[in-house]
Design a protein that fits this description.
Number of strands: 0
Mean pLDDT: 93
Number of helices: 5
Length: 66
């Protein structure tokens, strides 16, 4: 699963969080958090944890494939 950088940054802004904040709150290593932010493929569980911390549905931040 890949995150849409634009949608993700909007969700992060709404939550007033940066990568370090998300890593601390989720318990994920900061490099993993940065992988999500940079649009790399991550496991669904990782993507779900990320969305949960941002208090949004994963479908709100996923990169739509055409």
């Amino acid at each position: 699963m890949k995150a849409s950088r634009e949608k993700l940054e909007l969700a992060m802004a709404r939550a007033c969080m940066n990568a370090t904040d998300i890593a601390k709150k989720s318990g994920m290593p900061e490099p993993t958090v940065k992988n999500v932010i940079s649009g790399r493929n991550v496991k669904p569980r990782t993507f779900g944890r990320f969305a949960q911390v941002l208090n949004c549905d994963p479908s709100e931040i996923i990169e739509k494939e055409d």
